[in-house]
Amino acid sequence: MFIKEIIIDNFKIYYQKNEIKFQKDKNRNIFIISGLNGYGKTTFLTALVWCLYGQNMRDVDKDFKRNIIECGGYKNFAINNLNRAAKIEGTNSYSVKLILSDIVFTAAPSREISICRKFDTKLSEETLSILIDGNENELTKEVGPEIFINDYILPKEIAKFFFFDSEKIVEFAEIKSIEEKRSLSKAYSEILGIKKYEDLKSNLKNLRMRFVKDMASDLDKRKIEDLEREVVDSQNLIDVNRDKIKVLEEEREIKKKTYNYLQERLIKEGASVNIEKIIESKQHRFNLLQELEELNHKLKGLLDLAPFAIALNLFSEVKTQVEKEKENALNTTAKVYIKKKVKNFEKELDILTMPAGIDSKKREVIKAKISELINRKLLLEDNLNNDKKQKLKLHGFSEKEADEFNAVFNNVRFSFKSKFDDLGIKYKELKNRINKINRYINDSESKEDDPIIKEFRQKMKVNEERINNIEKEINDLLAICEFLKNEINNKQKNLIVVAKKVSFDEENEKKDKIVIRLINKLDEFIVKLKNSKKESLEKNMLDNFNSLMHKRDFVKKVKVYVDSDILDIDLFDKLGNLIIKDNLSKGEQQLYATALLKTLVEESSITFPVFIDSPLQKFDYQHTKNIITKFYPSISNQVVLFPLLEKELNHEEMQLLDKRINLTYVIDNFASDCSQIKPIRKENLFDFFH
Q: What angle do CA 163, 166, 167 make, to 5 degrees?
């Protein structure tokens, strides 16, 4: 497929009719359209996507969806697309036209297809016309122009792979949510042609059900028809609910936008906080006051010890005295105990038998000498007499009181200062925070009586309530859709049960067996195709990534996981360790996403041209060289680049592309709302830019 011509007429910044013609040359497949920021490079891509998909462009990329929502819906978005200068001159319509050649499909053999979408802002009407070789075709009438484009030109699910912004391409490396993986899987199924075989299998199942109905009894036939009708009704209801969800999502975003606008107005009016915020602040102040009260109790406890800290030297002397008294008390107790033992010893001496020849007088002398020796050696009478000379008993603390005294002393001596300092700092911090919140609450409450503020708050409240109601409605609709899906599954199971009861005649039984065999073959083929495509995708992804990287063998293995409707891709290094994509540099993430896009496009049977906005972002010289020499020339038979010269493509880099460049254009912005596309010789491109 090759785009011969693009005609943009009064679409956004493009004033009047802009014609871009492309000449086919297999050796020169690269076209350059350059312009400064704001001149219309991204708008050019938007124009192409709008031409192909109209209001369905919201399904191509979330940026298009967001733009439509921010405009207040598709109709407002379409009205705003009219060039401002043309509008002032009285023009009411704009259009975008694509002329394609080399399209191969057997349903309508052709040399050329023209697709033109036009919007009339005065009538708020959009028209889409498709001409095949200059004439209307029955196929486009039968299936409808929108479906024709989606089925025969480029499915909207995979359009993002052919119209992409290199600045946003890293998003493919950051895919994490189930919904994003499901979306990638759907695109994978489309781009690799798997969906066509799954659709064929579904058609065969429908064909088999027609055989069953033809052979069924009247009663079974009615049951089948009733179940089929219920399935169709449920599916239609799901489609209706999904459309409602889309409308509600748009309304929700518009309400959010209005809410944010009102919030900004409140900020400008000096009342940016809402009532809930004031209530939250008051609760926070209450919690801080509770914390301050607890801190006061702790400080009070420490202040009771302050006199001891001030008189620490005197306090130390008291401690020394208490320790001496305690030691003396221990000594006294020990001496009393020893005296008691000595008395017992003396009594035992009385009953001891002395050696022969020792009379009673000598006996008393020996006893006295032993007693004196024991008293002198054990009771330390001299020291005791010296201690008695000192006045020891000043305080007379009990053992428990002495321990308590020591605990207080240690507290004052070792931890009082640090605790007091810490509590003092926390006290000041809490007081400052409370004072700040008090000022905040007072300032906020003082403005609540302002009539303008009241009006804004009331409008915000209405918007917020509607947003909450929309959320509830969306959740309810999603729940209904899920319920209907389960109902469809149950009814389809019932259809199978009823179908099994039907008896076939010989001829229809043969047909049925053929259809069953084809379905089974298709099942086997789809499994093999998925595995084959999976292996091919892994191999080509690895080759493409490593060919673009200047680190040798940075990625040693690529693993693709396809589970039901979920697609995931993992990278492994030469040691078999999983490479976390979040840990890759932005340049490496962009290389990964670029390799993925290149692989998917190569694996597909779709030959649609590739358009790349903001190329060569976040790449060093070596990576840039790899992209220029290995990516651009091979990704498609027609590649259109939209670089910002000197930043995204310099003269030296363009020389690397020179042999592959076909034609070059510049976007000339000759007025604030007016740009036009002009052809220019490639050797004059940088001169024109400078």
A: 125
Structure tokens at 252: 């929700």
Token duo for residue 174: 């950051």
Q: Which of 172, 186, 166 is nearest to 642 (CA)?
A: 166
pLDDT at residue 391 is higher than 70: no
d(CA 43, CA 46): 5
- Tokens 């697309």 correspond to 81
3-state secondary structure of 601: helix
Which amino acid, one-letter code, is at 220? Answer: D
Whether residue 541 has pLDDT greater than 60: yes
> How far apart (Å, rounded) are the C-alpha atoms in residues 277 and 448?
13
Q: What SS3 class is residue 119?
A: strand
Domain ranges of the chain: 290-438
Tell me how far apart the alpha carbons of residues 591 and 454 are, in angstroms, rounded to a whole number: 53
382 or 493: whose pLDDT is higher?
A: 493
| Cβ contact 126:118 at 8 Å | yes
Indicate the residue type of 338.
I
| Amino acid at position 171, single letter | E
Cα distance between residue 373 and residue 348, in whole Å: 16
> H helices of 160-217, where?
178-191, 194-215
Structure tokens at 99: 């002329």
Enter the tokens of residue 426: 């926390």
Strand-pairing partners, residue 135, are 132
The amino acid occupying position 202 is S
Q: Which two tokens stand for residue 470?
A: 């929309």
Contact 519, 205 (CB under 8 A): yes
The rounded distance, in Å, linking the Cα atoms of 210 and 502 is: 12
CB 152 within 8 A of CB 608: no
**Non-local CB neighbours of 673 within 8 Å, separated by 6+ positions:** 13, 15, 83, 84, 85
Residue 205 in this model has a pLDDT that exceeds 80 = yes
- Token pair of 365 as six digits: 């002398």
pLDDT 10s digits, 93-140: 999 999 998 876 655 566 789 999 999 999 999 999 999 888 888 778
Would you list the DSSP string of 474-521?
HHHHHHHHHHHHHHHHHHHHHHHHHHHHPPP-HHHHHHHHHHHHHHHH
* DSSP single-letter state for residue 10: S
Q: Which of 162, 61, 173, 191 is nearest to 600 (CA)?
A: 191
Q: How far is CA 593 from CA 173, 569, 597, in A?
A: 6, 11, 6
Is residue 330 very low, low, confident or very high in pLDDT (cuts 50, 70, 90)? low
Alpha-carbon torsion angle 644, 649, 652, 654, nearest 10: -100
Q: pTM score > 0.85 for this model?
A: no
Least confident of 166-175, 469-478, 480-489, 556-565: 166-175
The answer to whether residues 597 and 169 touch, using CB atoms and an 8 Å cutoff, is: yes
pLDDT per position as a tens digit, 646-668 = 887 888 888 888 888 999 999 99
Order of strands across the sheet with 557-563?
Answer: 557-563, 566-572, 578-579
Q: List the one residue out of 1, 30, 15, 22 whose CA is nearest residue 632.
A: 30
pLDDT confidence of residue 597: 78
How confident is the model over 256-265, as a mean pLDDT?
80
Question: 177-186, 360-369, 618-627: lowest mean pLDDT where?
Answer: 177-186
Give all strands (DSSP E) within 105-259, no chain letters: 112-120, 125-132, 163-165
